[in-house]
Amino acid sequence: MQHKPIHIIIVDDHPMVIEGLKTLLSDDERVRIINQFMNGTDALVFLEKNSADIILLDVNLPDINGVEMVPKILNIRANIGVIGLSTYSEPSIINQMIRNGVKGYLLKNVTGDELINAITQVHQGNFYFGSEVQKILADSVTQESSDLPKLTRREKHVLTLIADGKTTNSIAEELFISPLTVETHRRNLMQKLEVPNAASLIKVAVEKHLI
Amino acid sequence: MQHKPIHIIIVDDHPMVIEGLKTLLSDDERVRIINQFMNGTDALVFLEKNSADIILLDVNLPDINGVEMVPKILNIRANIGVIGLSTYSEPSIINQMIRNGVKGYLLKNVTGDELINAITQVHQGNFYFGSEVQKILADSVTQESSDLPKLTRREKHVLTLIADGKTTNSIAEELFISPLTVETHRRNLMQKLEVPNAASLIKVAVEKHLI
DNA sequence: ATCAATATACAGGAAAACCAGTAGGGAATA
DNA sequence: TATTCCCTACTGGTTTTCCTGTATATTGAT
């Protein structure tokens, strides 16, 4: 079905992992590992001159953060499919990786079949995330949205206006209410979200996806 | 290969779109549309009593925002695959949808083949995003990370402390520098990010992934 | 060695935010 | 009907931020 093998680069600072991946992929003729690197810089230098189809990218590299690696890779060669790899998985890390453009994400306890599956899927332009990864992502969503204090409509509205950098007075004008009322709303918001000022108010609001 | 058809629910307030989807899916025996709704509330009520495999969910519903629909659906039935649908696509919307747990996202100019493909992929537990959608997401990343003003280490540090709700004085104590210096840093930050106060400073900082 | 960027620091004053407590009217609800 | 929640509004005071402008020692780069 497929004539040319998929060209793969491995970036991981653990020799053991590299060997493991090699073993898992060695039997399959659809893929070929064309190079491997123990750090991010070397990989980027290589990519300036050469290309590949898929990069298996460890998240914890000695020199460059895996999260930061992804845009760097895609800046050099936008059509490479980057698949993130890590031993355990922080939801926020995975989210950042996805936002930065990884097409797949796997834990290192991945089976050979799943690995091949991920590689072929990503090579075809699809996304692939291991089932554990999906579970982690799903959990993180429900967890975040769990203990969010209930804000009233008015409070949400005021909140977004504060986030836009509006002052109490201009908010009051915009909503045709007294500045004193706006202050009350702001105070209630800070109390509900348990923060001491508007800056951190916005921070937790963004974190909890309230705005 | 597959005996039971995949059960599908359509949620969209445009009759035309519903008919279009029906036509695209009518020939295929692998899928079966079991119900359709013109608004979010009706769909949620239905899901309380019945289930489905896949939901094709329009983002612009009359009653409930599509983005908010996703967690509601998954709270009722976690194993439903939600595929987002929209005519045109705001990157931020798609990002929110993904974070909230959609497994796929398509534009409404989707072909029958791609639609079937997305449905089967998602039903198998994979993700599926149309190529245009992927392009939009990729563009949004490079765009966001493009014009970010360069912050110095010290400024970044001060920025995170501001985000934590610390006052100028406490930051000064923590960094063993004068409060006046901290103020200068804050001022420079606001100038660089072109915002009028600390609240919106934090907002754009989060948006641009600076903290 | 020189120039640019960074981190540091200050003055003086205006504006806004923050704190604590109170309170009335309206809508929803029990 | 009573109660609770929401939105509204106020007093009076303290703290912090924000503005404008200046300035110096240190570091990094050319």
TrEMBL record, chains A, B:
InterPro entries: CheY-like_superfamily, NreC/VraR/RcsB-like_REC, Sig_transdc_resp-reg_C-effctor, Sig_transdc_resp-reg_receiver, Tscrpt_reg_LuxR_C, WalR-like. Gene3D superfamilies: 3.40.50.2300. Residues 144-209 form the HTH luxR-type domain. CDD domains: LuxR_C_like (cd06170), REC_NarL-like (cd17535). The modification 4-aspartylphosphate is found at residue 58. It comes from the Bacteria. SUPFAM superfamilies: C-terminal effector domain of the bipartite response regulators, CheY-like. Residues 7-123 form the Response regulatory domain. Pfam families: GerE, Response_reg. Keywords: DNA-binding, Phosphoprotein. This is Response regulator transcription factor. It comes from Maribacter aquimaris. The lineage of its organism: Bacteria, Pseudomonadati, Bacteroidota, Flavobacteriia, Flavobacteriales.
